[in-house]
Amino acid sequence: MLVASNRGPVSYTRAEDGTLSARRGGGGLVSGLSAIGPEADALWVCAALGDGDREAARSAQGRLDTGDTGGQPVRMLDIPSGTFEAAYHGIANSVLWFTHHMLYHTPLEPVFDEDFSGQWAGYEAYNAAFADALAQEAADGAAVLVQDYHLALVPGMLRARRPDLRIGHFSHTPWAPADYFRLLPDDVAAQVLAGMLGADRTAFLTARWARLFAECCARVLGATVEGGGPPREDAAPEGLSSDDAAPEDFSLTVTYEGRTTHVGVHPLGADGDFLRERAHRSDVADRLAQLRDQVGTGPDGAPRRVLVRVDRTELSKNIVRGLYAYRRLLADRPEWRERVVHLAFAYPSRQDLAVYRDYTAEVSRVAEEINREFGTGGWTPVVLHVKDDFARSLAAYRMADVALVNPVRDGMNLVAKEVPVVSDAGCVLVLSREAGAHEELAPDVLSVNPFDVRETAAALHSALEADPADRAERTRRLAATATSRPPARWFLDQLEALPG
Ligand code: G6P
Fold first, then answer.
1. CATH superfamily of 272-482
2. Model-level pTM?
3. Gene3D superfamilies attached here (predicted)?
4. Of the candidates 91, 75, 71, 66, which has an alpha carbon nearest to the alpha carbon of residue 29?
């Protein structure tokens, strides 16, 4: 079996003493694959992302044994930096990510010109490098699981090189409705879809994204779509409707140029066992004590309420509107002043892109503005942490009275599933109806339109006022739903569902 993704399960950095040290990454795929263990006999093919990775890849001719980080063997591809930049920053993160999350400010963006053509050629070359490596590594009839929007062309390219392989593709992002997806140049839109249809099976985190993908195949390629029910852009707000099949039974096929690709749904859940154990280690207890000190007590001597958010500082996570909603709450409901603290953890991401740097600066600016406007000598309304610290995130999950997860669009969002698992005394989840997790969690959350700051502020108020017993009961139900498809099962389900 082979797994292919842009970001691999480990990253290498050169330490001060000159040695290369490996760090294991997180995420569903890493835990899914490592839960199966070495007997899976899997090779993970990924790109060398930084200087440390490149050095490690060169010194081992690309093939790394990551046993010391608890992982599977990895082959890191040392892709020429110009090609990598064009593919990763230029196309994957600036065009495909923006399309799938509908992030463009369309009066000025996107512009598809000569620069774009050059970047697209880089994306093709980068996908071809993966297809070559996979074709070279795969045993006869092996299963190859290709991940995400970075590698949309790989299934088609790999099938052309190795028709014997069983090829799966998985999208960790949402998918855009055809009217939006078609802002891509026609040839590029067609290449992305046809590339993914090179797989025997292409899967998504929710039925909503799967249907939208099929709708794009029908509209852009003229492909034949069968099953899955009609594409419904509004499928998420009420959660899974009664006519929705369970993800296991979801059945949809797309036939294009004589080949049929199955389209599946696999909602990734939280890793309950790991999280519960990890959240009770001593480093988390230390962080909990520090955060309790920071939060402090209100004028009545009672501990202040805690509103938590934890995200990559990612445009789609909607952090700035979340802060606007909190500001609205403090302005409209003065009774909460001095009695609540917003722990906002926003970890830098994709800082090579100017638009992400600007967004990161805007998050800080608005947080400071709120603190200037409402803060007092003994009360800081927003405590913004930007240094990634998993133990501190878990401590915040444990103590949260309310968690705000308000992305404008999100494939799943695991924070929404992790908080209820770890919560000490129950936590009210204010959740965007545009997050994939909403399809499963809707019955026990306060749902919001992520663009409506007034509604979000009102939801924060209701959440802060929630009855503790009701809150604890809902949290228990959320935790059960959130952990029903842990990463190992999610991964094995995909493997078993691969036809052939
Ligand atoms: C999303 C994508 C992943 C990606 C991650 C972090 O979750 O679906 O493929 O690895 O973001 O983004 P980065 O650009 O840092 O890899």
1. Glycogen Phosphorylase B; (3.40.50.2000)
2. 0.95
3. Glycogen Phosphorylase B
4. 71
Q: Terminal CA-to-CA distance of the chain, rounded, Å?
A: 14
Whole-number Å distance, alpha carbon 17 to ligand 1 midpoint, is 30
| Residue of minimum CA distance from atom 13 in ligand 1 | 350
81-93 tens-digit pLDDT: 999 999 999 999 9
Question: Which pLDDT tens digit goes with each residue over 410-441?
Answer: 999 999 999 999 999 999 999 999 999 999 99
Contact residues of ligand 1, CB 6 A cut-off: 7, 93, 148, 172-173, 349-350
> Hey, which of 5, 88, 148, 175 would you mutate to test ligand 1's pocket, going by the most ligand atoms within 8 Å of its Cβ?
148
Quick count: other Cβ atoms within 10 Å of Cβ 287? 20
Q: Domain spans of the chain?
A: 79-268+488-497, 272-482
Q: What is the DSSP string of 385-426?
A: E-S--HHHHHHHHHH-SEEEE--SSBS--SHHHHHHHH-SS-
Instruction: Judge if 79-268+488-497 and 272-482 fold alike in CATH terms.
Output: yes
Whether the Cβ atoms of residue 76 and residue 35 lie closer than 8 Å to each other: no
Domain 79-268+488-497 -> CATH class: alpha beta
**354/357 Cα distance (integer angstroms):** 5
Closest residue CA from atom 14 of ligand 1: 350
Hunting for tokens 């797309």 — which residue is that?
A: 254
Which DSSP state fits 230? S
Distance 367 CA to ligand 1 centre (A): 25
| 340 burial type by CB count under 10 A (0-12 exposed, 13-18 middle, 19+ buried) | buried
CA of 149 to the centre of ligand 1 (A): 10
Contact 255, 224 (CB under 8 A): yes
75 Cα to the center of ligand 1, angstroms: 19
